[in-house]
Specification:
Length: about 170
């Protein structure tokens, strides 16, 4: 089902399983843009299972301008113990470079904010790279505030395995 936006010729729709190759191509484009292409290990098989398998862990919406896929957003629910409510965490929002500045990213963000409100979420949050000044400016323009007092912590690979082995 296409979701009409206020931007002429731009529609948003929920991704379906047949979109997995497109989703993976967007992930690769985003990784190139973020100078992190060497970190992408996702495959169509892994995405298919994670997004459309028995235990769906994330959702994807695609943005189409004049019938061409030009944007994607991937998000999942988290939970705030302080609020006692779910939240939405936006893992990725990407608009093809030639389509930026038309309001498409804002429309995608607004739709996910709409979903957050509809789903009674108390938060909608995401990370942005410090060097991405245009993204930071864009997010400030929609009212997002930085969480400077928090430092992201991450366990992956061998460190994750070593800690798990201690159980």
């Amino acid at each position: 089902m296409n979701i009409k936006t206020s931007i002429p010729d731009f529609v948003i729709r929920e991704a379906v399983e047949n979109d997995v190759p497109l989703i993976l191509s967007f992930i690769h484009e985003l990784a190139e843009y973020e100078k992190l292409a060497n970190e992408v290990v996702a495959t169509e098989t892994v995405l298919r299972e994670s997004l459309f398998g028995d235990r769906k862990v994330a959702e994807v919406f695609l943005g189409y301008y004049q019938g061409e896929a030009v944007a994607f957003a991937l998000f999942f629910h988290n939970f705030s113990t302080f609020l006692g409510q779910p939240g939405i965490y936006l893992e990725d929002l990407y608009v093809k470079p030639q389509m930026r500045g038309k309001g498409l990213g804002k429309s995608m963000l607004a739709y996910i904010a709409h979903l957050a409100r509809e789903r009674k979420c108390g938060r909608f949050e995401w990370w942005v790279l410090d060097w991405n000044k245009s993204a930071l400016k864009f997010y400030r323009s929609v009212g997002a505030i930085p969480m400077d007092e928090w430092t992201v912590q991450r366990l992956t690979g061998e460190a994750l395995n070593q800690l798990a082995d201690e159980f």
